[in-house]
């Protein structure tokens, strides 16, 4: 006789395991500030521009989360707070507004907070990434008497700007990772106390830090 009339029972194939996401993490970093804003003297037919160099080290603390993976890409966000010695020396350029007497020009970032998207391409334990977002910072600066008249002029304000950058992250264990990144920050034009001087407040930062995953 022929075999059983019952249909063979087919075992379902196991579902593919979903990519594990690291979830929430905290990080800390030490950064070196470089480059800086430009101050322009508007009191002549030819604009006089002086580059201000911001330098010094600052510390950063923050948190982040990877929230999705699509193909070979990772999507996440980070928020952080940075404070430290992000300031210039007295700059004496060959042009007004940083030429007169002993005043020169100054620029300082007292603190900075950022919220950024992070898009990475994981390659085993290493992930290069790009990042971009918004920045809110407390800044101040000054120009010389020659540009401002009888008194030194300047600004002291909190500004909203933007940042872009790139970095690389390497997993050391299930809990720990290291990362390094370079960021460019643009805070727009500060409001000097005179119409004779304007500025473009930008700077860069290179950071090296540790990540702890919860």
Verbal overview:
This protein has 214 residues and is mostly beta strands. The protein has a single domain, classed as Porin (Beta Barrel), CATH 2.40.160. It has one helix at 145-148; strands at 24-34, 38-41, 48-51, 54-55, 57-70, 73-88, 106-120, 126-143, 153-171, 176-186, 197-200, 202-213. An 8-stranded antiparallel beta barrel has the order 1-5-6-7-8-9-10-12. The longest helix is centred in the C-terminal third of the chain and has 4 residues, at 145-148.
SSE diagram, text form:
Blueprint: E1 24-34, E2 38-41, E3 48-51, E4 54-55, E5 57-70, E6 73-88, E7 106-120, E8 126-143, H1 145-148, E9 153-171, E10 176-186, E11 197-200, E12 202-213
Antiparallel strand pairs: 1-5, 1-12, 2-3, 2-11, 4-6, 5-6, 6-7, 7-8, 8-9, 9-10, 10-12
Essential attributes:
membrane, Opacity protein-like surface antigen, Beta-barrel_OMP, elongated, signal, Porin, mainly beta, 214 residues, three-stranded antiparallel beta sheet, 12 strands
How many helices? The count is 1
Mean pLDDT: 86
- Structural shape: elongated
Named at the architecture level, the CATH assignment is Beta Barrel
Main sheet record: 8 strands, antiparallel, barrel
CATH T-level fold name? Porin
The radius of gyration computed from the alpha-carbon positions, rounded to a whole number of angstroms, is 26 Å
Number of DSSP-assigned strands: 12
Fraction in beta strands: over 45%
Poorly predicted segments: 13-20
Look at the helices and sheets and give the structural class. Answer: mainly beta
